[in-house]
Structures are given as structure tokens and as C-alpha cells.
Design goal:
By secondary structure, this protein is mainly β. The protein contains no helices and 13 strands. The strands form 2 sheets. Strands 5-4-13-1-2-10-9 form a 7-stranded antiparallel sheet, with no helix packed on it. A 6-stranded antiparallel sheet has the order 3-8-7-6-11-12, with no helix packed on it.
């Protein structure tokens, strides 16, 4: 089973996952600043399968709101837009792997920091603010979220494998 990937906005957008056996790739750290005609970005692929997405927010008064709770299929994709014109794009590929792209604006490339504690790897886009909106497809169905509409102070999405073996 794939290790869950958590996307949240603890001040700046964070991408966290467990890294068994000390594996620590650096794909999201390698921001390409010179992509002609495109904003700067970096990409990493995590092996799957990723079969489910769950998302929620916590509001100013402490209540939670569900964003999405759905199976994932190949071709599903969602984009988290943050303050400071940064975004994280997540796509489920044909092998049900998870392709993560961190993208900035032409004049504000993403600055990605990596920390590792025990077996947990955390990427933090330090010049991004909290998640402002999420647009995506899960199980072929659209979903949308705007933080200001529910007075969100914390947002999280988790992609994981919900298949079970007998």
C-alpha cells in the first residue's frame, strides 16, 4: 500500500509523507526557474496506488467542513491555489501514482524547503501563504473549495490507498 500524502496549510503550504527505509527524494526542491513561456515549477512522482482523497477545513469557531471524500481514478487532478500566487497541482496517473507539481508566478518562483524528522519528509513552500482555493476532479466529478466562504483557518487534503488485501 502507498504511504498517504498530506497537503495542508500550516502557515505556508506543506506536503508531508512517510519515507520508509530513509528514502528522501529531492524532486520538489529542483525548481526550474528558466522554463520559457511557463512559470517556474518543480515536480515529483510518488508511487501508488493512490485510490482515495479526503479533504477538510477547520473554521474560525473550531467546526470542520468536508471538502471532498471520494475514490480516485486515473486522470483525476486537483489544484490548490495559495496566497502569493503559488499553487500545488496533483494528478493521478495511469498507474495510480501521484504526480505533484509546485508552481509559482513568473516573478515569484516557489522556494521549497525540505525537512525530515524520523521517517516523515515535509516539503514547505516557504513563500506561499495558506490555501485560498481548491479546484479539482475526484472519481471524475468536479469539486471546489474557497477558504473565505467558510472562514477557514486550516485546510488539509490527504491522498491515500484504501484498498485492502485479504
Amino acid at each position: 500500500m502507498a504511504t498517504p500524502i498530506i497537503f495542508d496549510d500550516g502557515g505556508s503550504i506543506r506536503i508531508r509523507t512517510e519515507v520508509p527505509n530513509g528514502r528522501c527524494t529531492v524532486g520538489l526542491l529542483n525548481v526550474d526557474l528558466y522554463r520559457k513561456g511557463f512559470p517556474p515549477e518543480s515536480t515529483e512522482r510518488e508511487e501508488g496506488p493512490f485510490t482515495h482523497i479526503t479533504g477538510f477545513t477547520i473554521g474560525k469557531l473550531g467546526g470542520t467542513n468536508e471538502i471532498v471524500d471520494s475514490p480516485l481514478i486515473a486522470g483525476d487532478c486537483f489544484t490548490m491555489q495559495t496566497a502569493n500566487h503559488q499553487c500545488v497541482i496533483v494528478s493521478i496517473d495511469e498507474r495510480r501514482g501521484c504526480v505533484i507539481t509546485v508552481q509559482g508566478a513568473d516573478d515569484n518562483p516557489p522556494i521549497v524547503d525540505l525537512s525530515k524528522f524520523g521517517n516523515v519528509r515535509q516539503y514547505k513552500v516557504v513563500n506561499a501563504g495558506p490555501i485560498r482555493a481548491i479546484d479539482g476532479m475526484a472519481n471524475g466529478q468536479e469539486f471546489h473549495f474557497v477558504a473565505a466562504e467558510c472562514k477557514s483557518i486550516f485546510t488539509a487534503l490527504i491522498v491515500w490507498d484504501d484498498t485492502r488485501t485479504a
